[in-house]
């Protein structure tokens, strides 16, 4: 005991000697962020307790991310199912306001996302800035679509008979999204925003190698009046999570953008429960620059809609 | 702590004697009960053990519909589900019983004839228990006459809480008599009893008055069947068995919605009361939405993929 006390005293002596009046100020302890999952509006660790190191493009350690398990995927689907009723019955106008709010909050934190893109993907400052701007604009773009998609895809149908006949698109339900692997912010936004804009809820498997932007984006979503469970973000491995999401009977549609070589296998599993599938499009395997098109149209919304047609007799 | 045998010696039933007995019971260590229940709920039950637990839990379910909006059609649908919980898989065991209001007993008996599923009826002015004694007895007799094999009565919580144990005791004995051969489950409504000490006292009172089962709740009051409450009741039936050799059953009801909850209850039964109680004759789970979750977990185990509630009936 005495010895230890002496050592401590000695250590203090050294520190005092080193930190004189004109020496450097004692450095602050770094406050590092724990990157967790985004599930049902909360930020839990993986149920499995696992995490994995995330490195920058040049191999430098950035942080540890949660490694989501099969059960996290199951919980995410439950959360998305629970959120579906409320989200899909909101007015399209209200959904648009909330998506626009996401853009506002993201704009306010653009420095953080730009720095993140520079560090994680090795983009230049200017490139990163362009990507973040495009991501903000993408939320605004789909915010605008929320209350217009029904007019474009639905309407009155001419029928031969004394009936009014109307078709209207409705959200299909819970959509499992395998997000692009090499476009962690703009690519992720480009696949998630169209899914939720029309009233679906999403379970998203983020880029495995660059998942940090997704969890930062989750903080934006959580503070933008988006109800908990509408977007659930799982950081982890597609080969581990994908098969369970694809075969899950309570998943109504599957976006295979980030599935890579497993897309066919997942599509086959999805077929057993008649899950709608969006196959990976050309160029979607590229980096953020592949997602810069400012007008992506309705192509990512229509696969996740059901058309409801109503016949109504004339004159009643 | 086991209750001393002498406490069960026959004696004149007066409020004074009941009070002396019930207040002489050892107090419940609330923190200890919670910690024990919490500890037991972390047991991991997987694969084959889980499959067995799910089937056991299904056979213990008292499939319940106690709504003002119940119709004969809904009761018949529930009965069909009770007899064949999963129509696509005949290896699924049937449930323990169907639990309905007394005016629906005849419908349920009709629908369940020959299936082996029992019919339980709530009686005695369920869920409040606030009605004249004659009405409670008439309610019970009618349900038994219509063919109910089990009666779920509620105790008079007002009388219990004001210390009129004799009134509660006499009501239970009177209803037990009206039941004839039907089994009597005594609902304590633990959510209104405030303390675990009261739960222990009410359990012993109900057991002593001749109840065949003690049941936690009506399902209309929250909190309903929490694990510590079930634990205290399981201790009561265990102690009664140790003292007298008579087996009394336990039925948690209300708030048990998932397979995980059900399996936690089974673990509690095994560890507190013992494996003797792991039978539908001595342990039931009052539930409505639980059955679907059990079926879904069963499908998950046998197929390896997660099922969707869309593939199961709503009630």
- State the distance separating the first and last CA atoms of chain B: 41 Å
CATH architecture of chain A: 3-Layer(aba) Sandwich
* The CATH H-level homologous superfamily of chain B: Aldolase class I
Count of DSSP strands of chain A: 10
CATH class of chain B: Alpha Beta
Largest beta sheet of chain B: what is the strand line-up?
Answer: 7-6-5-4-3-2-1-8
C-alpha Rg of chain A (nearest Å) = 24 Å
> What is the CATH topology assignment of chain A?
Aldehyde Dehydrogenase, Chain A, domain 1
CATH superfamily annotation of chain A: Aldehyde Dehydrogenase, Chain A, domain 1
The biggest sheet of chain B, with number of strands, parallel, antiparallel or mixed sense and barrel status, is: 8 strands, parallel
Quote the CATH topology of chain B: TIM Barrel
Low-confidence stretches of chain B: 5-10
GO molecular function (chain A): oxidoreductase activity
Keywords (chain A): Oxidoreductase
Region (Disordered) (chain A): 1-28
Biased composition (Basic residues) (chain A): 1-11
Tags for this model:
heterodimer; A: 316 residues; alpha/beta; B: 315 residues; TIM Barrel; eight-stranded parallel beta sheet; 12 helices; globular; Aldehyde_DH_dom (chain A); Aldehyde dehydrogenase (chain A); Ald_DH/histidinol_DH (chain A); Ald_DH_N (chain A); oxidoreductase activity (chain A)
Overall description:
The complex is a heterodimer of chains A (316) and B (315). Chain A has 316 residues and is α/β, with parallel strands linked by helices. Helix content of chain A is 42%, strand content 16%. A five-stranded parallel sheet of chain A has the order 7-6-5-8-9, with helices on both faces. Chain A has a three-stranded antiparallel sheet with strand order 3-4-10. In chain A, strand 3 and strand 4 form a beta hairpin. The radius of gyration of chain A is 24 Å and the shape is globular. Chain B is α/β, with parallel strands linked by helices and 315 residues long. Chain B has a single domain (19-308), classed as TIM Barrel, CATH 3.20.20.70. In chain B, helix 5 (105-112) links the parallel strand 2 and strand 3. In chain B, helix 4 (72-83) runs parallel beside helix 5. The longest helix of chain B has 18 residues, at 227-244. Classes of the chains: A alpha/beta (316), B alpha/beta (315). The A-B interface holds A 74, 77, 81, 244, 247-250, 269, 272-273 and B 304-311. Chain A: It holds the Pfam family Aldedh. Chain A: InterPro entries: Ald_DH/histidinol_DH, Ald_DH_N, Aldehyde_DH_dom.
């Amino acid at each position: 005991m005495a010895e230890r006390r002496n050592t401590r005293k000695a250590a203090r002596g050294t520190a005092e000697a080193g930190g004189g009046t004109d020496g450097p100020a004692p450095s602050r302890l770094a406050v590092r962020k724990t990157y967790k999952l985004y599930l049902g509006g909360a930020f839990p660790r993986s149920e499995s307790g696992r995490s994995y190191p995330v490195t920058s493009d040049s191999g430098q350690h950035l942080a540890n991310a949660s490694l989501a398990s099969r059960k996290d995927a199951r919980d995410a689907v439950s959360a998305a199912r629970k959120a579906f009723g409320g989200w899909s019955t909101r007015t399209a106008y209200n959904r648009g306001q909330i998506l626009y709010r996401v853009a506002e909050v993201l704009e306010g934190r653009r420095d953080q996302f730009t720095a993140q893109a520079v560090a994680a993907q090795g983009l230049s400052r200017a490139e990163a800035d362009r990507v973040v701007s495009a991501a903000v604009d993408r939320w605004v773009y789909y915010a605008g679509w929320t209350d217009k998609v029904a007019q474009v895809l639905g309407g009155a149908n001419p029928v031969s008979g004394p009936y009014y006949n109307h078709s209207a698109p409705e959200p299909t339900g819970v959509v499992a999204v395998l997000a692009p692997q090499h476009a962690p912010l703009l690519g992720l936004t480009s696949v998630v925003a169209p899914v939720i804009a029309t009233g679906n809820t999403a379970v998203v498997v983020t880029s495995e190698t660059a998942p940090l932007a997704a969890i930062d984006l989750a903080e934006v979503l959580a503070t933008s009046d988006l109800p908990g469970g509408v977007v659930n973000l799982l950081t982890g491995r597609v080969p581990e999570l994908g098969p369970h999401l694809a075969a899950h009977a309570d998943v109504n549609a599957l976006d295979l953008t980030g599935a890579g070589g497993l897309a066919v296998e997942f599509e086959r599993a999805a077929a057993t429960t008649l899950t709608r599938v969006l196959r990976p499009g050309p160029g979607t395997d590229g980096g953020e620059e592949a997602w810069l098109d400012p007008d992506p149209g309705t192509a990512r919304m229509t696969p996740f809609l059901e058309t409801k047609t109503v016949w109504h007799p004339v004159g009643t | 702590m086991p209750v001393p045998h002498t406490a069960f010696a026959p004696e004149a039933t007066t409020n004074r004697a009941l009070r002396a007995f019930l207040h002489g019971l050892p107090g419940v260590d609330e923190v200890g009960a919670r910690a024990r229940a919490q500890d037991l709920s972390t047991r991991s039950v997987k694969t084959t053990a889980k499959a067995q637990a799910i089937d056991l839990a299904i056979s213990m379910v008292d499939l319940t519909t106690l709504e003002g909006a119940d119709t004969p059609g809904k009761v018949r649908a529930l009965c069909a589900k009770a007899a064949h919980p999963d129509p696509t898989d005949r290896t699924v065991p049937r449930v323990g019983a169907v639990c309905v209001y007394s005016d629906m007993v005849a419908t349920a008996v009709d629908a369940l004839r020959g299936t082996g599923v029992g019919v339980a009826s709530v009686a005695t002015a369920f869920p409040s228990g606030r009605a004249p004694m004659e009405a409670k007895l008439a309610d019970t007799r009618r349900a038994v006459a219509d063919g109910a094999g089990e009666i779920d009565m509620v105790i008079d919580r007002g009388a219990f809480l004001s210390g009129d144990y004799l009134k509660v005791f006499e009501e239970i004995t009177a209803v037990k008599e009206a039941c004839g051969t039907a089994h009597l489950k005594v609902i304590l409504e633990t959510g209104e009893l405030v303390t675990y000490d009261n739960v222990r006292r009410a359990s012993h009172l109900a057991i002593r008055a001749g109840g065949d089962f003690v049941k936690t709740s009506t399902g209309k009051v929250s909190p309903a069947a929490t694990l510590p409450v079930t634990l205290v009741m399981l201790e009561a039936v265990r102690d009664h068995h140790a003292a007298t050799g008579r087996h009394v059953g336990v039925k948690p009801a209300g708030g048990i919605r998932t397979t995980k909850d059900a399996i936690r209850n089974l673990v509690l039964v095994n560890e507190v009361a013992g494996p003797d109680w792991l039978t539908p004759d001595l342990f039931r789970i009052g539930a409505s939405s639980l059955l679907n979750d059990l079926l879904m977990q069963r499908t998950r185990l046998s197929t390896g993929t997660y099922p969707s509630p869309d593939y199961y009936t709503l009630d």
